[in-house]
Amino acid sequence: MIDLRPIADGVFVARTVPLDVNVTLVLGDDSALVIDTLSTETQAAALHGAVRKVTQLPLTVLLTHFHFDHCLGASVLAGGGRPVWGHPYTANELTERGQHWQSRWHREWLSAEPELAAGLAAARIQPPDHLVRGTETLDLGGRMVTVSHPGRAHTGGDLVAYLPDVDVLVAGDIVEEGNPPDFTDSYPMEWPAAVGRVLDAMTTSTVVIPGHGATVDRDFVVAQQKQLAALDWLIREGHRDEAAAETVAARGPFPIETCRVAVGRGFAALEGGVSDGAA
Ligand SMILES: [Zn+2]
Fold it and tell me: Any idea what the Cα angle at residue 106 is, between residues 161 and 214, rounded to 5°?
């Protein structure tokens, strides 16, 4: 059951199970924008049904990044050749390494969520065919949506979407509510600056839709950026002092298992060892 709740004029958000992923639906006069598409074709079909209860407009799809819970439903939502927007990094990961990711994600989820894992392996990958490198304005008819890449952060190709007429920002996983940020494919020492660029574009009353969890405000994003910046500093300082990764992780602002991943990515980047998306 997918419940698209109105959060602003012509803007709807669904929090979904099992991963508490947010999907955002934005209505224009000529088309509707679906931001993120869930993990499997079954989930995406349910989402499509929920969208069709709200609007019959042609759909445009935006993928905030390449992770399965945001993009593997794209083929269902964009059925009939509708545009799929994304960053070139996202397009490349899904085009060149889609099979690698599908088998890895299947392996990771097989014991905890076998049904989800089967759906991940079976999904038809639809990479973005409309690319946003810096900033693009999408015209939905009577409504503009500014889509931009604030820099590498949660992945190498994160995109955020801002709706100026209602002051709503869709942040993808560069902002997380309910769980700590996920550093698996991240750039932990670039992430704080990316969030800073997003904050610069916000007002004090911007409503922020994170990639997962409850809708938040600017203060929440500021607080999370402080944690990210503290972790960035610990990684640089720890690397300089040749501290053990585990010691650095134990001092981090997030749970140790989260910081362990971040420190591993950070140390590898400082040693020139991070190859894009190869964590
Ligand atoms: Zn993600």
Answer: 35
